[in-house]
Amino acid sequence: MTAVALLGLVAACGSGADAGGAVRPPAGTSSGTATADTGSPASEPGTTEPGSTGPGTADTGSPVTQSAAAAPRCHTSELRAKIGRPSPGAGQRNFPIVLTNTTDRTCTVRGYPGAAFVDASGEQLGPDPKRSPDTPTSVSLAPGRSAWAGLSFASPEISGARTAEPDALLVTPPDERNPLEVAWTHGEVPVAGNESSVRLTVFQPGTGG
């Protein structure tokens, strides 16, 4: 594993950004990496940076609640991850990062995921994502239920950013250290230059549909 990958493997924080406002996602695979769901895509995520075009609304039909302080935190080993269908708009590409509870107990997620694009060797591509100024809330996941967070970036062909095509996206649940690896099949992402920032929103109930 490269030095970059080792330095990137930190826990996703549930309540806010660090002094630089950046997410500190894992940057490489580890023996604790869980299995991700690469099945059918979900719908687009919600709001992003003020002034940008955000994705769709949350799934209001899910019986997931946002008041669940008593439920224990969801651990990486109890979750399945997938990336939903892209939602282009006004120079933006938007995706939902969906986490699903695979256990028979209720657990909660709160705040932002950790996220890192990596190549086939596990080396991180581009800087750490930034966090949109959202207010985290606890999302309770009954068995089989999901929560989603938005991932968005400016379309590279419009922004002129330098790009790379990732092999996978590493997703770390809030307050966890081990990532879930999800195959990335959505083409190139910005890694440097103008408008190269990738942004994340907080988790909300549902799948982003």
The tally of strands reads: 14
Percent strand equals: 25-35%
Enumerate the spans where pLDDT stays under 50 for 5 or more consecutive residues: 1-11, 15-69
Mean pLDDT, to the nearest integer, reads 76
Largest sheet: 6 strands, mixed
The structural class is mainly beta
Helix content: under 10%
Radius of gyration: 15 Å
Shape assignment: globular
Distance between the termini: 37 Å
Treating each run of at least 4 consecutive H or I residues as one helix, how many helices? 2
Order of helices and strands: HEEEEEEEEHEEEEEE
Descriptive account of the structure:
This protein is mainly beta and 209 residues long. Helix content is 5%, strand content 30%. Strands 2, 3, 6, 8, 13 and 14 form a six-stranded mixed β-sheet that branches. Strands 1-11-10-5 form a four-stranded mixed β-sheet, with no helix packed on it. It has a two-stranded antiparallel ribbon with strand order 4-7. It is globular, with a radius of gyration of 15 Å. The N terminus is likely disordered. Pfam families: DUF4232 (PF14016). Keywords: Signal. This is DUF4232 domain-containing protein. It comes from Streptomyces shaanxiensis.
